[in-house]
Amino acid sequence: MSILNAIPSSSLAGRPAAERTVDAMATTTEIRPRALVRASGGPRYAVALAVDALGTGLLRPFLLLYGVMALRLSAPVTGIAMTVGVVMGLVCVPAVGRWLDRGARSTVVAASMLVRVAGVALLLATPTGNVWLFATAALFLGIGNHAWPAAHAALVATVAHGRERDAALAGGRALRNAGLGAGALLATACLVGGTTALQALAAVTGLAYLAAAALAWSVRVHAHPAAAAAKSRDDEPAPRMRALLAANVIYVFCLNVPEIALPLVLVTQMHASPVWSAAIFVANTVLVVTLQVPVTVLMSRFSRRTALALSGVVLAASYLGLLAATSLGHGWGAPAVAAVSVVCTIGEIIYAGSATALVTALTPAHLLGRALARFQLSTGFGLAVSPAVITALASHGSAALWGGLSAATLLSASAVATEKDQGASRAGLPAGGTGKAGVRVRRGG
């Protein structure tokens, strides 16, 4: 059973087979939830994702508070330790890519979760005032957070193909955002307990990661590159995708707009109530959870590269809209910013639904791990530098912030749209499963 219902086959009669296949995928409109769960790795894997996201939501937004309140570290020292941990965690990503290219799938997902279990254990064992152990714990958490996206995308690409794979990746993102939001809300309610509550949240997070790792490992998805494909393409390098990777560094700034840019502008420049920032963040989460799959399915009418370029145009337009909104002043400014932020979230949703999908479509299955690792490096780098860039631009005024982001994003969208794919036929190859990609899937449990 397909995730998506296509247009009636009668409307495609008399047309070439390849064209009928493309049109059927391009006009899919209806989502089949059960098939979506199966294409995403199955029910147990979906539960693993939800539990992992819930645990992450419990701790990640409050890790800085843990360092300040529970460990009595200064805020600057805590922030530096966290940043170092996140950046150093990127070093492991190439190794994850090579592991994935040897066929591992659910094992790598489980390992990314177990690494975070070790990080939480170190966090709980860190004595008051010890910044080095805290930094080491942040490093382990960073390694797990960077390894997970590539491993998850590779697993989904192995069990699903074509536009079903795109929808499955979108479904995983929606589920993860729901878990993150629920975890953050639960943690916020528990924070009245002070230091003891923070330590309890960390412990629960560790248990959640452990349970999620066990569930993910039990799925037992493993890809075996076929001998013929491996022999014929053994010396073939992964597609470079230089423009795509460079553009992705700019694109991912949109993920930090609701969390960093908008609160910074609303509170420090517009002197609006922090309630507006909280409302925008909640609205962003709700929109991603509810619209990520439908919008991704809707955008399947276009090529993935076109969708990704379009997302850049939408994001750039939203940045210009935010520039106009911030000029309205205290009275109407905050409501206008909140309204325009919805457009920014739509751009984020289109970006998230097309970027990873484009990478998996362009890459031969036996090279998928390295390609996803390179993509995660660009994502991680963009997320790491975006807070510093956003705050630096904001210090020069709204025009520098929103105008600069809009120009950079439009330039990135143009680079994505004009980049030539290495081997145009790759966009139609399934990145996993059986067939031309040369991968056989073994599932157990």
Description:
Pfam families: MFS_1 (PF07690). It is a multi-pass membrane protein. Keywords: Cell membrane, Membrane, Transmembrane, Transmembrane helix, Transport. Residues 424-445 are annotated as: Disordered. There is one protein chain. The protein is mainly α and 445 residues long. The protein has 2 domains: 32-224, MFS general substrate transporter like domains (Growth Hormone, Chain: A, Up-down Bundle), CATH 1.20.1250; 242-420, Up-down Bundle (Growth Hormone, Chain: A). Helix content is 75%, strand content 3%. It has a two-stranded antiparallel ribbon. Helix 4 packs across helix 10 and helix 9 (162-190) runs antiparallel to helix 14. The protein is globular, with a radius of gyration of 22 Å.
Output the keywords.
Growth Hormone, Chain: A; 2 domains; two-stranded antiparallel sheet; 18 helices; 75% helix; globular; cell membrane
